[in-house]
Design goal:
alpha/beta; globular; five-stranded mixed β-sheet; 555 residues; 18 strands
């Protein structure tokens, strides 16, 4: 089966040959076997069949454990309501010898005070050394570049940045390959949709939802995919998200979207300078750029496909997969997926069945009212996207939620101006976390969802919100030198006409001041200084918005 594509395929020189074999041999996907097998039947199984059975039972255990944990949580909450008192669960808390120091520039770590106690100091010294791995050191450098992009302009377009990103990808591959293909999470969880290289909206969420860092913020963070293409800061966004994952592996979950495939993020003919492959080659040169692109895609091949929150809310990039034989339900089918899958183009170990499941997860959409009339008996039908893409209707949603005992589906994948929208009898949430590059207009909002203990809350960025680092598209701090302006232009943070406009304004002020009375010149200088101070306080980086002329679904 060919995976769904929209329009012409990517024509990267590496695209046709890079995916013949994975970096690490992937686990093969096996179908589920019946649980009714007797002891005699088990003895008659071959070694290969027993391995299949073991894999199947382990996947079932993962799901059942999540169900048990969720049921216990609900029991605790009900008992809590009946007793009208909080239930305190006994937990062990290992001692930490460091304290977090919060400053204007962020959070730093220092040794905790001991009040001169020799015994206490000895205990703290006996604790494991909190030394950082090389990947954690690189991740912290990415965090610093995200917070202060102007100070790191030279680094972000250097070969050092490329080398660091490749090294981070090696650590990410090891981390992601050990994760289940479907995560089971407990609330509170923040859920985000498409990012698409939009550094400005990612800064909005960082500045407001994990201001002191994810490590010091309660809850977990779930991203539904589509981190690259369309926006002009794909490399910065990927570096930041990968850095967060390295530093907070248990708090951040990154799912896979359709743009985390080579056939899409390598489609230069369609996305041009907004293609992830084009940005890699433009930033680092053809050879090194293609190496960075491939290493990042190796990480994408290992991203999980889905997550379930409180065993009540199913989270996915596109939508629910079509029924497949030998699986009890769709979640079991996702859990049985190989841990390394390229999808399109595919690895040799991938089957038509695994390609179909993955493609449905990252490409499908809810059916509109007109499409509902042409769906099959399972509730699925052809998508408006074309190719092998499918849409899912009310019947498919009813069956999926009922068979898995769920209440809602939270997905991304479709561009709209509302940040978060609800459809399908208020059971499907569509989350879009970028307000740019999709032709939705200047009033478009970037949104996310907070799944709390007993409620779902929608959070949207107002179009009037002023970001700390990224501001009006033509406003540049007057204190920036010509070299800094040129550097920003090369990074795609500033347009050439903005530079010339700012320089022209500066030259006009200079020419006008030479013909002024000394007193007038003094007043003018004071006024300019005041303007500079005000502008510096709110403006550091330009908001580079290049929206598409036409709206529509995200590709």
């Amino acid at each position: 089966m060919s995976s769904p594509t929209v329009g012409k395929q990517a024509s990267s020189p590496d695209l046709g040959k890079v995916n013949t074999t994975p970096r690490v041999k992937a686990k093969k996907k096996w179908g589920l076997f019946s649980n009714k097998a007797s002891a005699d039947y088990d003895e008659a199984l071959t070694a290969e069949e027993k391995n299949r059975m073991i894999t199947t039972l382990r996947n079932q255990l993962i799901e059942k454990d999540a169900v048990i944990e969720t049921m216990q949580t609900r029991i605790d909450r009900l008992e809590n309501e009946m007793k009208r008192s909080s239930i305190i669960v006994h937990r062990k808390h290992p001692l930490n010898q460091q304290t977090h120091l919060i400053t204007d520039d962020g959070s730093t770590k220092r040794a905790v005070a001991t009040r001169g106690s020799i015994a206490t100091a000895n205990i703290l010294r006996s604790l494991p050394d909190p030394s950082k791995s090389p990947s954690m050191i690189l991740a912290e450098r990415f965090m610093a570049a995200f917070k202060n992009p102007i100070e790191y302009m030279s680094y972000l377009q250097s070969r050092d940045f490329a080398s660091d990103l490749i090294e981070i990808c090696d650590a990410m591959c090891e981390l992601l390959e050990d994760e289940p293909r479907c995560h089971f999470l407990q609330s509170p969880v923040y859920v985000f949709g498409d990012i698409h290289g939009n550094l400005e909206d990612l800064h909005f969420f960082s500045d407001n939802l994990w201001k002191c860092g994810m490590e010091l913020t309660a809850g977990k963070f779930l991203f539904l995919g589509d981190y690259v293409d369309r926006g002009l800061n794909c490399l910065e966004c990927i570096a930041y998200l990968f850095g967060l994952k390295i530093l907070c592996p248990n708090k951040l979950v990154l799912l896979r979207g359709n743009h985390e495939t080579r056939s899409v993020n390598g489609w230069e003919e369609h996305y041009k300078e907004k293609s992830f492959l084009h940005q890699c080659k433009s930033r680092f040169g053809k050879e090194l750029g293609e190496s960075v692109w491939e290493e990042v895609n190796q990480c994408f091949d290992r991203l999980p496909l889905a997550a379930v929150i409180d065993h009540d809310i199913f989270c996915i990039h596109g939508g629910i997969p079509r029924p497949v034989p030998d699986h009890d339900n769709a979640i079991q089918a996702i859990l049985a997926m190989p841990n390394v899958a390229a999808v399109n183009p595919c690895y040799e170990h991938e089957t038509d069945e695994t390609q179909q499941i993955a493609s449905d997860c990252i490409w499908s959409d809810p059916a509109n009212e007109e499409q509902e009339m042409f769906l099959d008996e399972t509730g699925f039908g052809p998508s408006l996207r074309g190719g092998d893409c499918v849409c899912f209707g009310m019947a498919a949603i009813d069956d999926f939620l009922l068979s898995n005992q769920l209440s809602f589906i939270v997905r991304a994948h479709e561009a709209h101006a509302h940040g978060v929208s609800i459809s399908k009898a208020a059971r499907v949430f569509t989350v879009f976390s970028t307000s740019k590059d999709h032709g939705q207009g200047r009033k478009a909002m970037a949104g996310c969802i907070l799944v709390d203990v007993d409620k779902i809350q929608v959070i949207n960025r107002s179009p009037a919100y002023k970001n700390k680092y990224i501001h009006h598209r033509t406003s540049v701090g007057c204190d920036l030198t010509d070299e800094q302006l040129a550097e920003m232009s090369r990074l795609g943070l500033l347009r050439a006409d903005s530079i010339e406009g700012r320089r022209h304004k500066s030259r006009s002020r200079s020419s006008r001041s030479t013909h002024m009375h000394p007193k007038e010149r003094s007043d003018s200088v004071d006024s300019v200084k005041s303007d500079k101070a005000d502008e510096k306080a709110v403006t550091h980086v330009v908001d580079f918005e290049e929206s598409d002329k036409k709206g529509g679904s995200d590709i």
